[in-house]
Structures are given as C-alpha cells and as structure tokens.
C-alpha cells in the first residue's frame, strides 16, 4: 500500500521485473494482481518478508540471491510506528527491528 505500491507500479510500468516483499500473502497477492492488470507486466511477483524477523530477512535474501540473476534497485520502504513495546522471538525490540535492523540486514545481505 502507499508509497511502496506506487513505486512498484512505476517500476512495473517501465517493464522491470518487480518483486513485492510483503508480510501478508493475501494483501501482497492482491497488489501483484492489481499492478499486473494496470501495467500489463507479468513479471511482478510476490515474496514474503517480515523485516521484524531477522530469520525472515535472511530467508528472503537467500531466495532472491538464488533465484534472481541480478538485482538493480532495492527500495526499503516498510516501517511501523505506534506499536506497543514488544520483544521479538529473537530478543529484539519490534519497532527498532522492523524499521532499522531488518532493512539494514537485508541491504547488506543483498550486496553479496
């Protein structure tokens, strides 16, 4: 939704292979279908990613590096605010992990 969806739509309009990294399979798949229909670009795909989980970030990066011959652009757009104080299963504060640690790790893993 929001800025991330607009960026994905623009990239797809430019005929780029576009990977939507989403926490929700249902919402992500709906966005994929909407972007494909609006742009005519069949190369829009969904991959699940939860940046509040470093294990999810590692699995996502591993899959992208294995499946994609190249990665030209990474848009780190996900973020949360106003959540109650929560500690993740990895013993990290959830908002900090979602907004900073997850994206930082993802960027560094995808650099190769």
Main traits of this protein?
mainly alpha, globular, 112 residues, 2 strands, two-stranded parallel ribbon
Structure in words:
The protein is mainly α. Helix content is 52%, strand content 9%. The protein has a two-stranded parallel sheet with strand order 1-2. α1 runs parallel beside α2 (25-39) and α3 packs parallel to α4. The chain starts with a helix and ends with a helix. Keywords: Oxidoreductase.
Give the amount of beta strand, in percent.
Answer: 5-15%
* Residues in helices, as a percent range: 40-55%
Provide the low-confidence segments as ranges: none
Tell me the number of strands: 2
What's the shape? Answer: globular
**Counting H and I runs of at least 4 residues, what is the number of helices?**
4
Mean pLDDT: 96
Strand order of the largest sheet: 1-2
Rg on CA atoms, Å: 14 Å
State the end-to-end distance. 29 Å
Number of domains: 2
Order of helices and strands: HEHEHH
Q: What structural class do you assign from the helix and strand content?
A: mainly alpha
Largest sheet: 2 strands, parallel
GO molecular function, one term: oxidoreductase activity
Keywords: Oxidoreductase
Protein name: DHR13 reductase
Family: Belongs to the short-chain dehydrogenases/reductases (SDR) family.
Quick take:
Helices cover 52% and strands 9% of the residues.
What's the layout of helices and strands?
Layout (H helix, E strand, L loop, with lengths): L1 H12 L4 E5 L2 H15 L4 E5 L5 H14 L26 H17 L2
Parallel strand pairs: 1-2
Helix pairs in contact: 1-2, 3-4
């Amino acid at each position: 939704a929001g800025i991330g969806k607009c960026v994905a739509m623009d990239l797809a309009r430019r005929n780029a292979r576009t990977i939507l990294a989403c926490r929700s399979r249902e919402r992500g798949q709906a966005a994929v279908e909407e972007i494909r229909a609006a742009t005519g670009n069949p190369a829009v795909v969904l991959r699940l990613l939860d940046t509040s989980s470093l294990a999810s970030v590692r699995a996502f990066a591993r899959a992208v590096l294995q499946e994609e011959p190249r990665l030209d652009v990474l848009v780190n757009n996900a973020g949360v605010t106003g959540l109650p104080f929560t500690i993740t299963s990895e013993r990290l504060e959830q908002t900090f992990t979602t907004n900073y640690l997850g994206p930082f790790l993802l960027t560094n893993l995808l650099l190769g």
